[in-house]
Amino acid sequence: xRVDFDRRLKLEFHGSKITSDxxxxxxxxxxDALGLTEVAGTIFQDSxxxxxxxxxxxxxxxxxxxxxxxxxxxxxxxxxLGRDPAMRWIVGGKAVERQxxxxxxxxxFETALLATDANIEALADMNGVWIDRVHDRRPPKMxxxxxxxxxSPTHGEQEGAAYNGHxxxxxxxxxxxxxxxxxxxxxxxxxxxxxxxxxxxxxxEPVVERYRERSLRRYFRGDAAFALPDLYEFLEGExxxxxIRLKANKVLQECIVHxxxxxxxxxxxxxxxxxxxxxxxxxxxxxxxxxxxKVEWHPGELVPRVGFIVTNLSRPAERVVAFYNQRGKAEQxxxxxxxxxxxxxxxxxxxxxxxxxxxxxALAYNLANFMRTLALPEEVEHWSLTTLREKLVKIGAxxxxxxxxxxxxxxxxx
Length: 414
Fold this sequence. Notes:
By secondary structure, this protein is of the alpha+beta class. The chain has 14 helices and 14 strands. The chain starts with 17 loop residues before the first strand and ends with a strand. The mean pLDDT is 92.
């Protein structure tokens, strides 16, 4: 088509000869090097009994993960992606010469084949399988686990949706467990009205079991929602060092009453911080435990800001607080999952189908994070996952077919 505003300019549409997601091929190369998506064919149970199946379990699984990685969080785009040359080569097999799975095929794959009890459990375990393969190549000296909950808004009559007063809306209330590299070790979808720590054992215990035989220093961090005696005892029995925030109460404040008196004299223009360490036993605890307190006097404020942390670390109080504050990274990882991978978009009516969607989003998140932590140069390894998608995944390319190979001619990036 020749445009009127400048007759020297001509527009041509070549359909499947171009792709806007050529950068996904680099993620597929990382996937192949680590052997990640190939495990789908061995761990998923295929309940189909027909003999005319075109795709196995691995092909639509790759399409689900890489589609989310490219910003296509629903199966609505499957028909177009199935014809996209980059996606066809990513999926591999018969899709290379014909096309990948259609919208209806992907819908059945995610809401029927993967939605069985066995396959949902396999999906939840797969994050750990992937992370172990990364650690085999880059063995860590220690592991730090950060647990936190989040919110996924719901709409209409979705199973498990309930009003949550803390978040001020109807939602799901998923639980996440990250390590210090930003990898999502495990997650679980929960109804919207459960407590923030509900089901912590089902999420934490399998991860602890995976690391039990490894020679590692082990740490756990959590906010005040995880200040539970059962959790303390579990972590102590597994030789984990932990820092968990405590809600303030009258007894704790009496232990630091000397720090709660406003200092005399003209207050400075900077924040004054004071620390304390003491033994404390709540009524539901089986023993005394160490508690660290931090008191901050801010300019212009009449009342200090006070925080308490229960811990079995022996390091100085100031260093305990600094170590706890680093758990804020987990909140940043959750934000990246929401904004870059859209894992809060759980739009199915059935609860178990949304549980499948969350696990697929989690796997796509981990693959994106592996690229950031393993393969990128130092100059760009600080990029967010959203930036990586915009600058690495969303690269246009022209596809040129030769006799024995295919070339993706990627556009130059200024």
